[in-house]
Specification:
Blueprint (H helix, E strand, L loop, with lengths): L1 E6 L2 E3 L5 E9 L3 E10 L6 E7 L4 E3 L7 E6 L4 E6 L8 E10 L7 E5 L3 E5 L2
Parallel strand pairs: 2-11
Antiparallel strand pairs: 1-3, 3-8, 4-5, 4-9, 5-6, 7-8, 9-10, 9-11
Length: 122
């Protein structure tokens, strides 16, 4: 079983910054990619940012230039630095890992965090 534990959410004013953290532990053989998703009330969950084990990154268009994803492969930890936050960034943010749980497993989503609330409001 894989556990992903997030931290760092909260209430921030527009234009402010927050940094989210997520640490993965448990039955993990390897992690190919780690990412952050978010879900606002009444909307579907969407990908915010993804980072692969080689360091390559992908971002949603709505956060490019404002958010930065980083990762420590040795510690199975991923961070999301969020700057210039807007009201539309308000959502529950979820951490996700894609990888293998054991040697002959196939690559798949191996875990989701419990979610951390980010609220951007004055």
């Amino acid at each position: 079983q894989v556990q992903l534990v997030e931290s760092g959410g909260g209430l921030v004013q527009p234009g402010g910054s927050l940094r989210l953290s997520c640490a993965a532990s448990g039955s993990i053989f390897s992690i190919n990619a780690m990412g952050w998703y978010r879900q606002a009330p009444g909307k579907e969950r969407e990908l915010v940012a993804l980072i692969n084990s080689d360091g390559s990154r992908n971002y949603a268009d709505s956060v490019k230039g404002r958010f930065t994803i980083s990762r420590d492969n040795d510690k199975n930890t991923v961070w999301l630095q969020m700057n210039s936050l807007k009201a539309e960034d308000t959502a529950v943010y979820f951490c996700n890992a894609v990888g293998r749980r054991y040697y002959n497993d196939y690559v798949q989503h191996i875990g989701w965090g419990q979610g951390t609330q980010v609220t951007v409001s004055s």
